[in-house]
Amino acid sequence: MELIKKYFPNLDPAVEEKLSRLGDLYADWNSKINVISRKDMDHFYERHVLHSLGIAAFIQFETGTQILDVGCGGGFPGIPLAIMNPGSQFHLIDSIGKKIKVVKGVAEALGLQNLTAEQIRVENHPKQYDFIISRAVTAFPDFVKLCHNKFLPTNKNAITNGIIYLKGGDFEGEIKPFKKRVSVTPLANYFEEEFFETKKIIHLSM
């Protein structure tokens, strides 16, 4: 938690309390259903919680913003962001049932009223959202194809509705087709740890 407070020093006490409980909750769930590697559990707050909160450093969602987390795995980036943005609504989806079980268990333990979760593929999900978020579940053009018709038409935030994608490595070729609709922000702009040197946020206006 010290790492989170380093970059988000003025947390609401209720938000801080929920974030501080994530480590123990995931350690417990991970012992029953393996959703995070043992190596990553050793760096849980850096590689999962703070990485997810890179989106919170990038944008502060307006109250009432509707957000879909696609391929959420055990709940990232959706759960930390839902804790940080209690006025926004988050729906987390994944095709693997045991991962959704973990998400629901963690959300219930924390009393997250602004988060729902469902086992479904995004192409079969009928609703529309202001933003779709994800941590690099597939090549970016393929992800855009899956999500292209799932966006609300009216913008209410400082950036236009669209995809906010956490991705590392070299993806210049993947974003080239989207030209001026896409922006890339290095997470190293916000966080100084070595883990974030190659990590970026892609925002695609839809």
UniProtKB/TrEMBL annotation:
Record-linked InterPro entries: rRNA_ssu_MeTfrase_G (IPR003682), SAM-dependent_MTases_sf (IPR029063)
Keyword Methyltransferase included in the entry's annotation: yes
Predominant place of localization: cytoplasm
Pfam families registered for this protein in UniProt: GidB
Keyword terms: Cytoplasm, Methyltransferase, rRNA processing, S-adenosyl-L-methionine, Transferase
UniProt binding sites for S-adenosyl-L-methionine: 71, 76, 122-123, 135
Compartmental location: Cytoplasm
Highest taxon, organism lineage: Bacteria
EC number in record: 2.1.1.-
Functional description taken from the UniProt entry: Specifically methylates the N7 position of a guanine in 16S rRNA.
Family of the protein in this entry: Belongs to the methyltransferase superfamily. RNA methyltransferase RsmG family.
HAMAP family in the cross-refs: 16SrRNA_methyltr_G
Record NCBIfam families: rsmG_gidB
Protein name: Ribosomal RNA small subunit methyltransferase G
